[in-house]
Amino acid sequence: MRIHHMSCGSFCPVARRWVNGAGSVFERGHLCCHCLLIESNQGLILVDTGLGTADVEQPHLRLGRWFTTVAQPKLQLEDTALHQVQALGFSPRDVRHIVLTHGDLDHAGGLSDFPEAQVHIHTPEHHAMTHPEGMEKVRYRPLQLAHDPKWVLHAPDGDHWMGFDAVRALDDAEPDVLIVPLEGHTRGHAAVAVRREEGWWLHAGDAYFYHGQLDTEHPHIPFGLGLFQRFADHDRPARMANQERLRKLAFAKQGEVSVFCAHDPVELEAARAQTST
Ligand SMILES: [Zn+2]
């Protein structure tokens, strides 16, 4: 399987030092939207979709003013998964499957650019998106789902994988893409594991936000990003426990499992460097 590491959206919030842990508070920060495009025997599989073309064209309507003000998205069509898929010489119809780590607006925005794809999601997350409560009414955007995605729900049961429970393969024909329940950031958040020649990639979505959080000796996150993470937590104790599991996994399986999250540009560059060698 050929695996492409793409960023399908970038955000430029204020105070780079407080977001990226370096630079000045007077500079803009930079966060990416790390997605995977997998060339498989089942056609193309997209893991998360970032922002879509309709989000770029109608940001306030699709993303909401609160998010566009805080996150300051760079609205560029060439960043969308649709454009990157086409730039690689594929048709949008070649994307047969999409796997979402969760349904937040910065992960699900591109769904509407691939209306024929089957969209795989952990069942509790689908329930949260379709029956939102409290803050969930802000984080999920019904307009992004108005095209009625072809949902494929994955119940929270399955096998053991690397110390994680209830893990399910995408389907019988695709045993090398796994949905790994990892709740906390949202009600039904999941990671997605993808087998590669040397081991596994583990796309941890928003289970953590910053590479320093996987530091075994001194886990850390810049102040501003940490505040945002706390604000976005659906169940903080659950997310913290899962973050600890990821930290232990990344350390114990170094060289076998490469863990990354959705929004850290340092991890995106490291993954691209690993892929190109
Ligand atoms: Zn996110």
Features of the shown structure:
Metallo-beta-lactamase, Chain A; 30% helix; six-stranded mixed β-sheet; 277 residues; alpha/beta
Explain this structure.
With 277 residues, this protein is an alpha/beta fold. It has a single domain, classed as Metallo-beta-lactamase, Chain A (4-Layer Sandwich), CATH 3.60.15.10. The protein has helices at 16-20, 53-57, 59-63, 65-71, 81-87, 105-108, 123-130, 136-139, 223-232, 236-252, 265-276, and strands at 2-11, 31-40, 43-47, 73-74, 95-99, 118-122, 150-154, 159-161, 164-171, 174-181, 190-196, 199-203, 257-260. The protein has a seven-stranded mixed sheet with strand order 4-1-2-3-5-6-7. A six-stranded mixed sheet has the order 8-9-10-11-12-13. The longest helix has 17 residues, at 236-252. The relative contact order is 0.15. The model has no long low-confidence stretch (mean pLDDT 95).
CATH class: Alpha Beta
Count of helices?
11
Shape: globular
Mind telling me the C-alpha Rg? 17 Å
Class from helix and strand fractions: alpha/beta
CATH level 3 topology: Metallo-beta-lactamase, Chain A
Q: Which regions contain 5 or more consecutive residues with pLDDT less than 50?
A: none
Identify the bound ligands: zinc ion
Number of strands: 13
CATH architecture: 4-Layer Sandwich
Number of domains: 1
Major β-sheet profile = 7 strands, mixed
Pattern of helices and strands: EHEEHHHEHEHEHHEEEEEEHHEH
Oligomer: single chain
CATH homologous superfamily placement = Ribonuclease Z/Hydroxyacylglutathione hydrolase-like
